[in-house]
Amino acid sequence: MSPKDRQKKLVEYLEIIDEWSTVKDLADVLGVSERTLHSDINTVNKNIKDTGSMIEKKRGVGIKLINHITINDKDNKQEYEQINDRKIQILEMLLIKNMTVTYNDLANELFVSSTSIKNDIDEIKTSLNANTRVKIISDLNGTKITGDENSIREAMIWFNQKVIEKKSLAHYNNMDQIKKVFEEFYQEELVNVAYDILFSFVMNNNSLLSEYYILNTLNVYIVQLHRLVNENLMDQSIMNLTEDDFGDLSDFTSGSSQLLKRASSRLTLEYTQNDIKFLAKYLILNRFEHIPNETTNINFIEGLISYLSDAFGVNFKKDSQLMKELKQHVPPMIYRLKLKVRVENPFTEQIKSEYRETFHTISMAISKFESGLKVEFNDGEVALLAIYFQSAIERQKEHKRILVVCQYGIATSELLVNKLKNELSAAEQIESTSVGELEYYNLDDYELIVSSTNLIKGKNVINVSPLLTNQDIEYIKRKLNSNGEESVEETVDIENIKKFLNKDYIFINAEFNDRESLVAYIDNKLTSDEYIENSYMETLIRRESLGNTDLPNGVATPHGDIDLVNKSLIVIINNNKKIRWNKYFVDKIFILLISKEDTKETKDIMKELYSLINDKNIMSHFKEYLNEVKGDLIK
């Protein structure tokens, strides 16, 4: 493929997926080195600068094709940021300041044309419609936001999350920095009061809460105090809370009552019992309030542990720490799912990448519990469960030593510590602590300080991701001058996968035009051969709506409810053209049917499957590889 053709393919691919992609994933798709990809991006940006588009590179996020912006000079990125900032300013006026605005007034204030303002308002409407329940309406007086109090507060919470994401602060490694973001939109005194009261509450009551949950709650608390200071009280008719959602919320209002009472003593505000319930809802969602474990939750936890013990070949049943963690995590998780409140997990994609076998095995396992719980799990919640189970897996491996520092002591620190214990042969012992407890440690006693916050400085300090990436591990190994032997790349072995292959379900030259036709054909064939029950494929498609199983390299690994699988089978499809699956276009599909009887095979199947998918040589010669596999089955 010539450089010109490759660059054209790069643009076409980015237009199709319309998502942030990593350099590694794009390089794999195009079959080039990361260095070549960076060179291609620079060339493409020079060639498309007059089209109103550019390929943006954002550190820690990835690469995306950005459209509808003016690119005429070296300040193109700055102009794009100004457009984003303008929409934020408009939303601030409409949502936070509760203003009624006109296009002319906005155009004069923001120094742009009325047409630009109209385009901005249209895009804001689209975003609000997709993510909130408030509406933008226009009349003779101007344009404003309308909605009930609950919906307005939820929209403001969403707005704050988007601003934090835009400023690349979503990994929460500096809460003081995030506080300054809030101060850009809310009264400084109000933000300081909310910050001081909440963190005092955390230290006194919930010292092991994740920064992830703390930030979610701080966001809600600031929004609520802002609305109360401006005399916007919560009305019972719009609470959107029922007694089916963990009973009467009055049982869980001690924390919210305390937080609002303390705020009212420092700010001029009044609040109602419904405001207490509103805050209680979010305290429950973010694990500030303890919910008693009901029989249903205990059955789910024990059932999941039992299933995954078989799937991974690991005895999770004896891990008392895992049971304790799940008993704390599951009740608010079920509560979130029942209320259909989606709490954004900033680590989902990283977890899916770093611990994909664990993630996808859990994703398959939880499908058998959804109907009993009357919920549907999304990828964010599966990723949180994966952290706990991956930590338990690492605990059972060989332990080895250093000091791990997290800001407040979080769930992911356990995963970080145990992964280090497994990876670092040079370490004799690994300890962990929070920033608040650091004064009790003599840092000179440690060869290395591994910190997930940038608040710690020193020559022996290494700052890492809270989930510890492969790059982090390699850097730590170099820092410790590890003498561990280099791992030798092994040939891909699919002996476990072969147990569940059938030559009639290996499609080497498929001609499906879209996902729907593929699913319909496979559904009919599998049902006729009694591999699945009639509704299996419905559960597979529903699972895709909750979280994608497709990858940027053109592979999809879909699965449905295991209770609807009669006989285990792995369907392999090589389609002659790429079809849109979920987020990506794919041409290699592995449909995983694992029956309850073959649960113990899951771990080995997933391990072999991802070894296969990651083998560039096999993926680039997939037809030839499948012909060999099919030939072996016929022998």
UniProtKB/TrEMBL annotation:
The keyword Repeat applies. InterPro entries: BglG_antiterminators, Mga_HTH, PRD, PRD_sf, PTrfase/Anion_transptr, PTS_EIIA_type-2_dom, PTS_EIIB-like_sf, PTS_EIIB_2. One of its GO terms (biological process) is regulation of DNA-templated transcription. Keywords: Activator, Repeat, Transcription, Transcription regulation, Transferase. The keyword Transferase applies. Pfam families: Mga (PF05043), PRD (PF00874), PTS_EIIA_2 (PF00359), PTS_IIB (PF02302). PROSITE patterns: PRD_2, PTS_EIIA_TYPE_2, PTS_EIIB_TYPE_2. Residues 400-488 form the PTS EIIB type-2 domain. Residues 292-399 form the PRD domain. GO terms for molecular function: protein-N(PI)-phosphohistidine-sugar phosphotransferase activity. This is Transcription antiterminator.
